[in-house]
Every structure is written in C-alpha cells, then in structure tokens.
C-alpha cells in the first residue's frame, strides 16, 4: 500500500494525549492500517472542482443578541470537580519555579 | 400490563381516566424488575424519582393539563444530560459525573409532563454498532439473548422491544437509532440534521449527530418527534423550520406517493432473507397505492470510507474535553500532560481510543488534504445523489442493515468488519436527510428485519406517512419477544 497508510500509532496517540500499552499500540497499528487501506478507495474518485461539505445544512454566522443570562449553578459545577480546594479545581503544577 | 401499550393508547386511557401515570410507571418498573437482569438495557434507574414524576403528572392532569406525552414514561440514552442524573455516555471516564443541566430535548419532554425514566446503555460515546463497546454493562437482544441489540442506541431499542419503557430517546450519527431499531424490532427515526436541538447531547460527530425517538409504532415516533423538534437558540445548527403535527398527518394509504428504490442498496453479501423481506415490503407499499420508481445513489458505496474519516475527525476534537480536569475520572500525573494521558488511557475503551487516534491522524498536518478534505468532497457527491433522487420520488425504500442481529462477540475483533455493516445507514447522516426504520419481517431464526424509509430534508412527514400506512397493513410491529 501507499506510504500514506502507514500511521505511526504511538506518535499520534501522544498527540491525542492517550497513553497506550505496547499491546494496544501493536493492535491498533494493524487495525488502523487496515481501515486506512480501505479508505484509499476515495482516491479513485475525481473530486476536481467539488466543493467540500462541512455541514449538510449550510449555515453562516448564526448570531444572537449579546445579553447577559444566568449560567450553570456554581455549586453543581464545583461538585463535579475531581479535586477541589476552596471552591476551585485543583490541577498539577504547570510552571516549576524552582 | 400497561407497559406493553403504545403512547397513543395510554394517552387515550389517561384522558379517559382508565389509568394513571403511576399505574403505567408501576407496570414499567415491574417489567424492568422482572427481566432487565437478563436484558441489561438500564444503566441507572431512580425508581422513586420516576414514581414522583408520575404522581406530579397525575396531579397536573387533575387540574386540567393535557398533552400526548403527559405521564408517559420515556427512557433516555445515557449521552443526554438530565439535570441531577448521571450522564456516563457508557464510559468509565464519566463515572461520578452529575449533569448540571437538561438537554433541550429532555427539557421539552419535561415541559410536556413526560416521565423521564432511567438511563439506558449504549456503545461508549455512541461509537459502535452493537452496544458491546459500552464500558459499563452488557445489553442483549430481547429476541435472542446470544445476539447483540445493535447500537449505539442498543439500550433504547432493547428497552422498548422488551416493554421496559413505552418509548425512548436515542441518537443517530451513522445509524445508531435505525440499526438497533431494526435488530430489536421497534420503530426508530433519525430526524433531519437540525430538526432537533443537540444542546445537551454529548457530542460525538457534530455535523452528523441527531437525537431521535425509538418507539413501538410509527405514530408514537411521530408524537415524540413533534415534542422534541424545533429551533433552539442554544444550538446554532438547529434550523428554524416550523414543526408540523406529524401524528395528525398520518393516513392509511399511499395513493399519489412516489417511492424510490435504489439498486445500490441491495448490496453484495446481503442476507437473502433481509432482501426478500424488504422487497415484499416494497410490494406492499405498491399495493397501498404508491408508485415505485428506480433511483440511483451511485456514490453511496463510498459512505463508509467518508464516514469513518469525518466522524473520527470530529470525535477527536469533541472528546478532547474529557481530560480529567473538570469532571469525571482523574488519574493523577506529575504534570497536566501526564494527567491527560493517564486519565484517557484508564477512562476510554479500545474503540474510542482507536477512533480518537484515527481522527487525530486524518486531521494532522500533511494528511488533512488527502483524507479529511477529500472525504468532505465525496460527502458532497453523496449528498448530491440524494438531491437528484428526491427530484424523482417522495421517499426512498431500502434495507436498514445487510443482516439481522449477529452473535455477541462475532465482530468485536475486527473493527473494519463492524464498520462495513453501517453501509446502508451512514449515507443519510452524511447527506443530512431523515430516515425511519420500521419492522418488516423476521428471519427463519426469528430475528426482526427492518425497512428503511429515507426522506428528503425536513420531510419527516413523508416517511412517517409511508411507515404508518405500511404498519397498518402488516402486523410485524405487534409481535413480541417471549420472556
């Protein structure tokens, strides 16, 4: 098959922020190569001059009035945080100042 | 045994004072207690809450409130947000999450006084065709416990077919309402893209997802559709088109209707019993007065390739939000990047991981034009085929699936094989049209077969009319699985 069907699963999984085991990487590598080989058939079509469809209903700039409205209930949202301190979500340190 | 009745029947009984919503919900809960241990349709069910809603509906009726869905229990697919309830989308990554708001479709049900029953199982994040990809439970086909219920709305179809709900809401991105409806022998409708607000529907593929009803009859599907449809300022892709009274427009004959038959939909490898049942249904529609015309959808054969590029691309972006920071599962890491990677590794099942990786790949630099852009262009060709076909007919008749329900475990090891089964349903999502699945027979093994009725954009009334007339002339929908 064409070079383009050679997905590097380990690299793409890193981009997608999913840690994979070695077994998963090997399994997905084979399965996704198979899927990518299948989609190669789209190359047999001549799509010169064909406009791409992003949405079946073409919509452009749907606007609404810019008016204040209540948002989600604060406590309900905070209750969903996996780690909370003083009503705020706790996350790992991003900048190391040491 | 009120749980075996339809919305239309129960609504009339409620209006005549022959039963209460509490009676109906009690019978539904009894059926769930009796057989859901075997079927596995429900993930979560708050019995007290359901009964409290039923009492409130009865009280509202006593003060003069009316409505087709007032007091009718409806099961909800687990990816629709219902305020205060879990919304796991069949995924471990959302365990512990409590929805802070109602999806618009759910809010509309609530406003009409429907009883929001429990949450039903699905393939994780709606990715799958058998509900085997659920991270949280196993659902079986009510007609044969060794077979899949279909998916991704497998719980919705199974609970309706097993009379464990009067009706249900599902969602359809590539066939996820129609295919399980066909496998379980109930009615399922995928509305036109933009007909029903997607606000509060956990997004899988935003340009394809639609919420729709699963029900026991076409009329019930029409009643539910009428309630959940309509423009919503909270979903900029919902379209401001008037919602007709779908149920009122149903008739028993098809005189004056032209129905298209696409030769490309009778694909190689199709089960002969499925083909025979669908062709017999076409003949029945002709007897009911419809004129059958040949139509062609030559690019439909590319739908799977296009779908699995576009749907995974959109999913890879949509599912980025499940990162362990604000809700659901968190696996701690030394820094945010490690936290994301570990959380997503632990929380997502294999099919979701595969699709996110594929979607990330087709959008990545250097491959975007070859895969994603080309797929979007072929999507245009598929859509144009339907536009041409609907110049010649009012609706299109086709099978829903190439085969009846298959055995559990039969296709889990081969993702591509599982994907190929969506060949007859994905074109409709890509084109944005509406389509209905109606029971049209049984295989020699006693498994239900579905007839697909495809309509042009916002022509739900046409497909409901065809489905209803066909249903009145047949009794497939009246047959029930044995328990």
What would you note in describing this structure?
The complex is a heterodimer of chains A (98) and B (483). Chain A has a domain at 1-44: Histone, subunit A (Orthogonal Bundle), CATH 1.10.20. In chain A, 32% of the residues lie in helices and 4% in strands. Chain A has three helices and two strands; from the N terminus they run αααββ. In chain A, strands 1-2 form a two-stranded antiparallel ribbon. Chain A is flat and about 60 Å long. Chain B has helices at residues 7-15, 21-39, 47-62, 104-111, 154-161, 178-184, 218-228, 272-287, 303-318, 336-347, 350-363, 369-389, 415-420, 426-431, 460-472, and strands at 42-44, 73-77, 115-120, 167-172, 187-190, 210-215, 258-262, 291-295, 395-399, 434-442, 448-455. Chain B is α/β, with parallel strands linked by helices and 483 residues long. Among the domains of chain B are: 2-255, Amidase signature (AS) domain (Amidase signature (AS) enzymes, Alpha-Beta Complex), CATH 3.90.1300.10; 302-377, no CATH class. Chain B has an eleven-stranded mixed β-sheet with strand order 1-3-2-4-6-5-10-11-9-7-8, sandwiched between helices. Classes of the chains: A mainly alpha (98), B alpha/beta (483). At the A-B interface, helix 1, helix 2 and helix 3 of A face helix 9, helix 10, helix 11, helix 12 and helix 13 of B.
């Amino acid at each position: 098959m064409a070079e383009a069907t050679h997905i590097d699963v380990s690299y793409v999984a890193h981009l997608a922020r999913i840690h994979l085991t070695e077994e998963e990487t090997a399994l997905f590598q084979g399965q996704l190569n198979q899927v990518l080989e299948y989609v190669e058939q789209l190359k047999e079509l001549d799509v010169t001059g064909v406009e791409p469809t992003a949405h079946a209903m073409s919509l452009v700039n749907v606007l609404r009035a810019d008016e204040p409205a209540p948002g989600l209930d604060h406590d309900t949202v905070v209750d969903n945080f996996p780690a909370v301190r003083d009503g705020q979500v706790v996350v790992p340190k991003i900048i190391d100042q040491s | 045994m009120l749980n075996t009745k339809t919305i239309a029947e129960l609504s009339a009984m409620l209006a005549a004072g022959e039963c209460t919503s509490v009676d109906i919900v009690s019978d539904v809960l009894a059926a769930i207690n009796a057989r859901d241990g075997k079927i596995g349709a429900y993930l979560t069910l708050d019995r007290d809450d359901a009964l409290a809603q039923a009492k409130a509906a009865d009280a509202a009726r006593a003060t003069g409130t009316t409505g087709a869905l007032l007091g009718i229990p409806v099961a909800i697919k687990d990816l629709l947000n219902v305020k205060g309830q879990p919304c796991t989308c069949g995924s471990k990554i959302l365990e512990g999450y409590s929805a802070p708001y109602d999806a618009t479709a759910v809010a509309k049900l609530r406003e009409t006084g429907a009883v929001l029953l429990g949450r039903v199982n699905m393939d994780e994040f709606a990715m799958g065709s058998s509900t085997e990809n659920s991270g949280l439970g196993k659902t079986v086909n009510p007609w044969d416990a060794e077979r899949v219920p279909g998916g991704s709305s497998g719980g919705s179809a199974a609970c309706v077919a097993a009379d464990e709900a009067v009706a249900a809401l599902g969602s359809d991105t590539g066939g996820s309402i129609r295919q399980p409806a066909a496998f379980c022998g109930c009615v399922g409708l995928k509305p036109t893209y933009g007909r029903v607000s997607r606000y509060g529907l956990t997004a899988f593929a935003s340009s394809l997802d639609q919420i729709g009803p699963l029900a026991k009859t076409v009329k019930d599907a029409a009643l539910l559709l009428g309630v959940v449809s309509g423009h919503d300022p909270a979903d900029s892709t919902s379209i401001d088109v008037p919602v007709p009274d779908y149920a009122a427009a149903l008739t028993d004959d098809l005189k004056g209707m032209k129905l298209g038959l696409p030769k490309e939909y009778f694909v190689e490898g199709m089960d002969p019993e499925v083909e025979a049942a669908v062709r017999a249904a076409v003949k029945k529609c002709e007897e009911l007065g419809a004129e059958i015309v040949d139509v062609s959808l030559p690019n439909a054969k590319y739908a799977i390739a296009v779908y699995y590029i576009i749907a995974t691309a959109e999913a890879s972006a949509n599912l980025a939000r499940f990162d362990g920071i604000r809700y659901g599962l968190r696996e701690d890491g030394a820094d945010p990047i490690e936290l994301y990677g570990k959380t997503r590794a632990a929380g997502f099942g294999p099919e979701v991981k595969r699709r996110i990786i594929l979607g990330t790949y087709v959008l990545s630099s250097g491959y975007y034009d070859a895969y994603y852009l080309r797929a979007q262009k072929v999507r245009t060709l598929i859509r144009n085929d339907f536009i041409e076909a609907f110049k010649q007919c009012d609706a299109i008749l086709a099978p829903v699936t190439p085969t009846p329900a298959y055995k559990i475990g039969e296709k889990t090891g081969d993702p591509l094989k599982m994907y190929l089964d969506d060949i007859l349903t994905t074109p409709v999502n890509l084109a944005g049209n509406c389509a209905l699945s109606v029971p049209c027979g049984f295989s020699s093994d006693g498994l239900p077969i579905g007839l697909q009725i495809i309509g042009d954009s916002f022509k739900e009334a046409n497909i409901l009319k065809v489905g209803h007339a066909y249903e009145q002339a047949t009794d497939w929908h009246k047959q029930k699985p044995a328990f």
